[in-house]
């Protein structure tokens, strides 16, 4: 009989959703008969407050990032908010029960701590033994993931494993898989065909500029700086859902070597023909870059998860952190002038890249069905 697998995330445009979709795709590759339901649990349980919370989060990140730094992975905050979370989880339990009654999941995987905590408390409330797996989408975890009855955690690094153990998680529960990205990132693409379709000359270096799904960061300033570099660069900039940024760059673009795109579904193709990616250090984006062996130049990491991702990559000499937009040009100029340095960083990237992470997570899920 076909097995039912529930994969929960939050936010429609996010790395959490992308990771959930990557695991879902991997599950179907390994077992086409399984039934996979991906669900934005925050929207499902709290549709009216979801937009308000998302706006509040974005405002804090943009205007008061140090407040987020205080809230993120703070044991005191975790302890103080536990009662509030209990109340919220109890309030949402009726909707969760409807979901369980309708879909009857054989195993649950969560790519974000909020749904994982909700399901963990639901299991305890109803004394259920449905396997629950927490799937990390950053290189280091935080304390909000810690619940007694989560059966397994998948992590991206030995550092993450050690931190979970320090937080009291049994080592047997922690599986080193990597951050799940679309399995297509491990497939060799036809670079010539991709370049031809985009009007890109592969004899020249290609720099990919991204600001995540929402097109965040000082992208306009970066493009202006790159436009002035005398190195024969070609630039692809992905503006995500930021329509204002897209229109501004399209209107002000002067050079033919800058290709401006909206939200795209073929980042794997763009990364296949790129040498460097300039981006905020989201766990999914960085994992995709590592899988394609392109060198990340990190910009504007937010406190908390993105700073942790940055520190992990810098510790492994697998990325650069730009001190400002002018520094980006200095890093790029040095990289393209120093082939030995470029190939050494690519080697460092290979040591920590895990392009098959989604398949490994999917195997763990199927093993527990």
Automatic annotation (TrEMBL):
The keyword Glycosyltransferase belongs to this UniProt entry's keyword annotation: yes
Domain of life per record: Bacteria
Domain annotation Glycosyl transferase family 28 C-terminal: ranges: 206-309
Presence of keyword Cytoplasm: no
Cellular component GO terms held in the UniProt record: membrane
Diacylglycerol glucosyltransferase N-terminal domain span: 16-181
Keywords assigned by UniProt, alphabetized: Glycosyltransferase, Transferase
Main location: membrane
UniProt-listed InterPro entries: Diacylglyc_glucosyltr_N (IPR009695), Glyco_trans_28_C (IPR007235), Glycosyltransf_28_UgtP (IPR050519)
UniProt subcellular location: Membrane
Xref: SUPFAM superfamilies: UDP-Glycosyltransferase/glycogen phosphorylase
GO BP terms, alphabetized: glycolipid biosynthetic process
A GO term for molecular function: hexosyltransferase activity
Pfam family, one: MGDG_synth
UniProt-listed Gene3D superfamilies: Glycogen Phosphorylase B
Family annotation (PANTHER family): MONOGALACTOSYLDIACYLGLYCEROL SYNTHASE, MONOGALACTOSYLDIACYLGLYCEROL SYNTHASE 1, CHLOROPLASTIC
Family: Belongs to the glycosyltransferase 28 family.
Protein's UniProt name: Galactosyldiacylglycerol synthase
